[in-house]
């Protein structure tokens, strides 16, 4: 086993860590997390190396800018898919994150209009409302003497509110009603059991994946899936008879279900949109299962990533009060006491710089991946069909060839938009399969962070963990971010 896989990488002239029998590099990855694995490998083997993650196929990790431009953009047609374990994800199997080939193209092109600038502008009031609730809830805590706050928790409540209202069109104040039925189910839904024996099946017996749906097994709890199926059915039925002008993803996807053309302005980001499937994929609209799978996917993809980014941005602003003061001053200069809106918040350039630097130094998704669908030569390396490609987002963001003093938090790096190569800053991935929620989340991050900084001075306290200890598996997630807040009068 060892020599066979070693042999493949050797033939391709790609260096990499020697794999353990059966488990490949899983021990190294699991003990230090993908971030440490990427940094260690990059130091030892350079920007392109091969590793082996168990019985699943081998992976080439590529941190080289030119090669990434080819894989993510130029030759995207040969690298359309992600590594997915079919039949493992219950109802989320039909979310775009888990779809492949023309099925992915079809569904992504159908739901893309829901993320256009026009739609996002109409969704801004939903986010505005949730961010006001966030500030009110922080204010209540601070005024009540509870001024050292677990930011992961409060931002988690805010993010939950935003997802419930933008994805499902349900206004629930989870920040004040944590026991609401929808909220408790959503929390359980998000709380995947990563220690589940199913993970072991996935790692050691991948050839048995096909059994999962047949046995009714999935990562997701059956009762919780049934709950969301019920809620979505009821909500969609109400929409058929009801108000068609609503702008939440459920409504917009329902419009796509019946193939109503969206008359709103076209998308202005070449990568958010995707070309229509070129082949015989002739089915119109999208199905109920695809609507459900995607509404749930927005939960999975958006909840923790956003909560982490807000918590880490607040942590860095507490660690570097000079940047916090600069941000507050720019907010005062550009918006003053006026209401913050989708449009005026975009003028506060320093806000974007702080968020970008947070996402560079601490990207919640430390990696993304593609599968090579057709033998392709990329910068002299012959990548065979079936090979997995991993993009080391964390390693790229911390590579001293890309960023000077990469471990230092310096928002000013992003002062000039064209001063860096887009292949060196990939918190949302890149190319036609870039994060579909990117611009939605940028608005969500900006509105809330701006309101928090306008109303509170944030600082570290004796309870702040410096630096925050990060989870080893999954997202780059701090275990705790406790910060002290003081009202600005
Ligand atoms: C700070 C927050 C977020 C970060 C850092 C993030 C990051 C990412 C990354 C790295 C990818 C992979 C892109 C690629 O392979 O090129 C991705 C995909 C995706 N994201 Fe996000 N994301 C965030 C928020 C959101 C939100 C709020 C949503 C919900 C609308 C969302 C929905 C998705 C979906 C559906 C995909 C799969 C797209 C596809 O396969 O076509 N994300 N995200």
TrEMBL record:
<keyword id="KW-1133">Transmembrane helix</keyword>
<keyword id="KW-0256">Endoplasmic reticulum</keyword>
<protein>
    <submittedName>
        <fullName>Cytochrome P450 3A4</fullName>
    </submittedName>
</protein>
<keyword id="KW-0472">Membrane</keyword>
<dbReference type="InterPro" id="IPR036396">
    <property type="entry name" value="Cyt_P450_sf"/>
</dbReference>
<comment type="function">
    <text>Cytochromes P450 are a group of heme-thiolate monooxygenases. They oxidize a variety of structurally unrelated compounds, including steroids, fatty acids, and xenobiotics.</text>
</comment>
<comment type="similarity">
    <text>Belongs to the cytochrome P450 family.</text>
</comment>
<keyword id="KW-0503">Monooxygenase</keyword>
<keyword id="KW-0479">Metal-binding</keyword>
<keyword id="KW-0349">Heme</keyword>
<dbReference type="GO" id="GO:0020037">
    <property type="term" value="F:heme binding"/>
</dbReference>
<keyword id="KW-0812">Transmembrane</keyword>
<dbReference type="GO" id="GO:0005506">
    <property type="term" value="F:iron ion binding"/>
</dbReference>
<dbReference type="InterPro" id="IPR050705">
    <property type="entry name" value="Cytochrome_P450_3A"/>
</dbReference>
<dbReference type="GO" id="GO:0005789">
    <property type="term" value="C:endoplasmic reticulum membrane"/>
</dbReference>
<feature type="binding site" description="axial binding residue">
    <location>
        <position position="435"/>
    </location>
    <ligand>
        <name>heme</name>
    </ligand>
</feature>
<keyword id="KW-0408">Iron</keyword>
<dbReference type="GO" id="GO:0016705">
    <property type="term" value="F:oxidoreductase activity, acting on paired donors, with incorporation or reduction of molecular oxygen"/>
</dbReference>
<dbReference type="InterPro" id="IPR002401">
    <property type="entry name" value="Cyt_P450_E_grp-I"/>
</dbReference>
<dbReference type="GO" id="GO:0008395">
    <property type="term" value="F:steroid hydroxylase activity"/>
</dbReference>
<keyword id="KW-0560">Oxidoreductase</keyword>
<dbReference type="InterPro" id="IPR001128">
    <property type="entry name" value="Cyt_P450"/>
</dbReference>
<feature type="transmembrane region" description="Helical">
    <location>
        <begin position="197"/>
        <end position="220"/>
    </location>
</feature>
<dbReference type="Pfam" id="PF00067">
    <property type="entry name" value="p450"/>
</dbReference>
<dbReference type="InterPro" id="IPR017972">
    <property type="entry name" value="Cyt_P450_CS"/>
</dbReference>
<keyword id="KW-0492">Microsome</keyword>
């Amino acid at each position: 086993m060892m020599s066979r896989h070693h042999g493949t990488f050797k033939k391709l002239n790609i260096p990499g860590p020697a794999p353990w029998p059966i488990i490949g590099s899983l021990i190294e990855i699991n003990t230090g997390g993908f971030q440490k694995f990427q940094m260690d490998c990059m130091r030892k083997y350079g920007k392109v190396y091969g590793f082996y993650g168990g019985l699943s196929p081998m992976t080439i990790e590529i941190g080289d800018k030119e090669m990434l431009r080819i894989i993510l953009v130029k030759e995207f047609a040969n690298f359309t898919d992600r590594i997915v374990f079919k039949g493992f994800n219950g109802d989320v199997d039909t979310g775009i994150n888990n779809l492949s080939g023309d099925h992915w193209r079809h569904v992504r092109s159908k739901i893309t209009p829901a993320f256009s600038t026009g739609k996002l502008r109409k969704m801004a009031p939903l986010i505005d409302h949730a961010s006001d609730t966030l500030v009110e809830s922080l204010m209540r805590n601070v005024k009540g003497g509870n001024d050292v706050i677990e930011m992961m928790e409060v931002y988690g409540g805010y993010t939950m509110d935003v997802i419930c209202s933008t994805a499902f069109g349900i206004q629930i104040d989870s920040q004040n009603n944590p026991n609401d039925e929808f909220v408790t189910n959503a929390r359980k839904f998000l709380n995947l059991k990563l220690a589940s024996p199913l993970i072991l099946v996935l790692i050691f017996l991948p050839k048995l994946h096909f059994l999962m749906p047949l046995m009714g097994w999935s990562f997701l709890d059956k009762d919780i899936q049934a709950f969301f199926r019920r809620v979505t059915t009821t909500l969609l039925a109400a929409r058929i008879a009801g108000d068609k002008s609503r702008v939440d993803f459920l409504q917009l996807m329902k419009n796509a279900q019946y193939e109503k053309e969206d008359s709103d302005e076209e998308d202005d980001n070449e990568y958010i949109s995707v070309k229509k499937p070129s082949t015989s994929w002739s089915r119109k609209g999208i199905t109920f299962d695809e609507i459900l799978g995607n509404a749930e996917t927005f939960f999975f993809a958006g909840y923790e990533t956003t909560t982490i980014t807000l918590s880490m941005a607040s942590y860095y602003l507490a660690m570097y009060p000079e940047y916090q003061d600069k941000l507050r001053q720019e907010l005062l200069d550009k918006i003053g006491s006026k209401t913050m809106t989708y449009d005026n918040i975009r003028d506060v350039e320093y806000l974007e710089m702080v968020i970008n630097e947070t996402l560079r130094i601490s990207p919640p998704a430390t990696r993304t991946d593609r599968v090579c669908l057709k033998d392709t030569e990329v910068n002299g390396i012959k990548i065979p069909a079936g090979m997995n490609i991993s993009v080391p987002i964390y390693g790229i963001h911390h590579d001293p060839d890309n960023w000077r003093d990469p471990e230092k938090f310096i928002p000013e790096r992003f002062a000039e938009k064209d001063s860096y190569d887009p292949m060196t800053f990939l918190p949302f991935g890149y190319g036609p399969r870039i994060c579909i929620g990117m611009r939605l989340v940028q608005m969500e991050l900006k509105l809330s962070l701006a309101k928090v900084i306008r109303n509170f001075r944030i600082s570290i306290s004796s309870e702040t963990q410096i630096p925050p200890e990060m989870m080893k598996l999954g997202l780059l997630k701090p275990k705790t971010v406790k910060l002290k807040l003081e009202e600005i009068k």
